[in-house]
Amino acid sequence: MATARRAIFSSYVIPKESAVLEEGVTKWSIDKAIDKTLGGKGIATLTASQWGESWSSFQHPEQYWEDYGSNWDDAGETYNNVGISITGAYSLNTDSDVNSTAVVFLYLKNLGRSSTQGLKLSLDGSNYKIYIPPQGSIHLRGDGSTLQLQHVKVNKVTDNTTIEYILAK
Known about the structure:
four-stranded antiparallel β-sheet; Jelly Rolls; single chain; 12 strands; mainly beta
């Protein structure tokens, strides 16, 4: 078992503006109002012992059923390395014993490819205020108390989609 875990993450954004030239060619340049790239790096120190096998949707393609632990009550696990299918409201926390545990780190990627496979994210359990487009992702650190495992839920916008995630305490 791991004795120390951490998530190293970063983001990088280039704010751009476009201009259509006389020849009909679109030219892109860095937005002069901002005039710099945006982003940052971070490290989230995770608890060595996580809340069950479903804290991550990532599975090694050579993983054998026999190698998994004995958390038979866990739901939503994926043994085929293709992510979790989202057909409606879905709680990323599948273990009710840890509902009120604080979130330390969340990574969520929408694997959908069609423009109708958008994903909504709720961080309070009911209000879906964050939109994640197809092939888009989000990562964040929890606040240490208010954001709890039970609050992290996703829902499709229009069509079913697939996700991969890490939800760590």
